[in-house]
Design a protein that fits this description.
It is found in: Cell membrane. This protein has about 200 residues and is an alpha+beta fold. Helix content is about 45%, strand content about 15%. The strands form three sheets. A three-stranded antiparallel β-sheet has the order 5-7-6. It has a two-stranded antiparallel ribbon with strand order 1-2. It has a two-stranded antiparallel ribbon with strand order 3-4. The longest helix has about 35 residues.
Length: about 200
């Protein structure tokens, strides 16, 4: 009995070191060596200033910016190194068949139309009124971006074609032409519109 307990304990220690420590270090090391930017969070930095990660959504509400998917945001009691409250997001747990969900979607549709009355009557892409599974989706569909072109052009006094050119620059197609869906990175488009990101 004593030997069995010692062997079990030894196995737990060995597996913890192998799987919990060595495996993690090897994977992290390989990722940092082969894909340093991605392993570091795909952070967008321009002239020494960090603007965010291209993998995490940020909330934009100004008329001259491209808006991403809705986010359920909350502020925790924790703060970052500069004393700012830490914000987090999550997916909604409301049923698609429930009245609460209908009311929430209708409110978001009303907000979009109020922001650009000229688009009233134009079908609103579903990703502009629904939260993603993670609640932090950094990308929207090209259709959702196109829906916002008129508002952005009006707010920035640009032509719609100029706005479309910026959006197209940060639109990614299907992987290998087959997998996934085309998508637009919201943060990159907005940084380009603000003249911060240039490629």
């Amino acid at each position: 009995m004593k030997q069995t307990i010692l062997r079990a304990f030894g196995l737990v220690v060995v597996m913890t070191v192998l799987c919990g420590l060595l495996y993690t270090l090897v994977c992290t090391g390989v990722a940092q060596a082969l894909f340093p930017r991605q392993a570091g969070g795909s952070v967008i930095e321009v002239n020494g200033k960090t603007y965010g990660s291209e993998l995490l959504a940020q909330q934009f509400t100004q008329p001259g910016h491209l808006w991403g998917r809705p986010m359920n945001l909350d502020f925790s009691s924790f703060t970052d190194d500069e004393g700012n409250p830490v914000m987090y997001a999550w997916a909604t747990n409301k049923s698609p068949a429930g009245r609460d969900m209908d009311a929430m979607v209708q409110e978001r549709m009303d907000n979009l139309i109020a922001a650009d009355p000229a688009m009233e009557g134009t079908p609103i892409p579903v990703d502009l009124v629904t939260v993603s599974g993670s609640g932090l989706d950094p990308e929207i569909s090209p259709e959702a971006a196109e829906y916002q072109v008129h508002r952005i052009a009006q707010a920035r006094e640009l032509t719609e074609d100029e706005v479309r050119q910026v959006i197209e620059r940060y639109t990614t197609g299907r992987w290998l032409g087959v997998f996934g869906e085309p998508r637009v990175n919201v943060l990159k488009v907005n940084l380009a519109l603000d003249g911060i990101l240039e490629e």
